[in-house]
Fold these 3 entries.
Entry 1:
Amino acid sequence: MINSNKPRILFTTRLKKERMAALQSSGFSVESVPFITFEYVIPAMWISQLPDQTDAWIFTSKKAVKAIKPAINDLKIPEHIFAVGSKTAEMLEELNLEVTIPDEYNVVALAEKMKELELKNVTHFCGNLKAGDLNKLLGENVSLTSVEVYRTKLAPHTLNISNYDGIVFMSPSAVESFSERNEVNGTAKVFCIGPTTEAAATEAGFENCITPEYSTLDDLTESIQNYFN
């Protein structure tokens, strides 16, 4: 361990009480300070943006699934539905939808998986800070419609970072918000949920970030435990 006391971990997003309790029972002092907030767009505001025909839906976050849930019975379900991440897929399956996920939980692997099919028109349910390279990854032969169903807002705070042994980022937007008013000191270790978040953290000047092989909260938690134990 870094010190004889409990490692102090800062999550820069809202953490569920059960997850926080599990980490605390594992010997960590955990604090959750959200650096981003979310608001959902009501279906009446986006449903008219959906194309008449689409070969596939894409979901790159659980929040997008939650946003479409109230309108699911009013939507025409396409033949293919893709999700990045097992938890996102599970939420879709709870809506009785059949879902395909890539072996690696990122948009690059997702695009490669989709290229195995002859898709012409696809719809991405996303937030206002969606990944900008998905269109390029899918190729010029695929028409991508991005439908904004939730919005992310930055909520920066100024904290005494020396109070923490580890800083956890769950999204590039959390990195951006955190970096507006804070810098990571030399003793705090940075943990990232996935490669896109790690890239944002590296660009912000955070070095030697730890990122799990799979972009799930369970794997991220395991990485934190392995580092400090």
Entry 2:
Amino acid sequence: MDAEEEPSGRRVEDLVLDAARDCVLAYGVRRTTVTDVARRAGVSRMSVYRRWPDVQSLVADLMSREWHRVIVDAARQAAAADGPLRARLVTQSVTAAATLRVHPLLRKILEVDPEILLPYMLDRRGAGQEEMLGFLIEMIAAGQAEGSVRAGDPARLARAVLLTAQSFVLSVATVTDGHTPSDLDAELTLLLDRYLSPAGGASTDRAPGSTRTRSSPSVVSGSPSA
């Protein structure tokens, strides 16, 4: 056991992740080395390598930690708000998107090493995306039971919400054109709220390729959800 390590090992991990964040903010991901991180954390290189085989895996865990903090903070703010679960779900989603959009780590990666994010946009979900998806599924199901969220498969609705909110994080700079991000956040709020509202319109629960729509079953009246 290293002298700087506590029995749980958490202290070293936190030191290394904090150091990795500082290095990425200073140099970018590609110019960050394990030696840089170890030196800044005040630990040996072996302490780093025992936990992460390379900088890429270290940065992946760093992003997971940072995005988790954003999600938790957004949930805390939303929990303090009054109103139905749908309103809290929308508030958390929009708050998390707005916070991530200006997050120093994400901004640095987008500016210097955008290719780091490509796997999470094109091939697979990261831990932060999985966490947000799990939260959305749980909240949508609870909102349906409460009657404030429309009927439908919670997993499918959650994916639509996640994809929408994610675009407001990663692509908003391409479409602002004189509009402020706050203006667009108001539109995201309206978009998500109407999408999830029981009175939001026709149900999408139909066979692929079908053009016929039907009214969404009412959760409030006790009709079974799709």
Entry 3:
Amino acid sequence: MGNNWAEEDLISLRERVFIHIKDLILEGEFKTGDRLVERELAERLNISRTPIREALFRLESQGFVKTVPRKGVIVADISEKEIIEVFTILSSLEVLAAKLAVQKLDDETKSKFVEYSKKVEDCLKNQKDTDFTPLHGELNHLLYSSAKNTKLYDMLSGLSDYIRAFAKTGYKNPGRAVQSMEEHLRIMEAIINQEIEMAEYLTKIHIENSRKAYIEAVKLGKKEK
């Protein structure tokens, strides 16, 4: 995102500020417990406090931040219970996305799955010092968009961002990263072959394995504090 924060288009500005602050949380610049001060953010972006306040309100409604008495707005934490709740929803929605991806598969989408299958295979062959995080995001986008359902895409993207914001270490575990790529590869193969039941089953297994990894990561993170 650029740094041109001119308030010529208020609607555009509101959205850009929201995405910018959210990205700072997702990228780890703002960590759990960090204060988000309206004045400081406004000065940083050289804009008024109003779009900052609105962005923080939206982020709070989505669970990314919370208001604490005498501290103000801080980046929220995530509990094991919340992870389980989110992954329960994520499991149902991703399974649905996989089913719709098979049902709505066309030549263009199929070629994308083939392309990304090759990317994953190449990464798995050269996995030393490989950061799978960007590719993981692209794979999620491919699956979600292939369902060709805007509402479903928005819900899945929001849930994925929520998990990514508060349990980053889960996917950075080298063993889990490789395992996850292998799971994605099998899911894509099932979609390419238009095997609905197999795609649903593999997606469910993938989400369950991810849930376990994230819970372990959160527990480990709390022990290290």
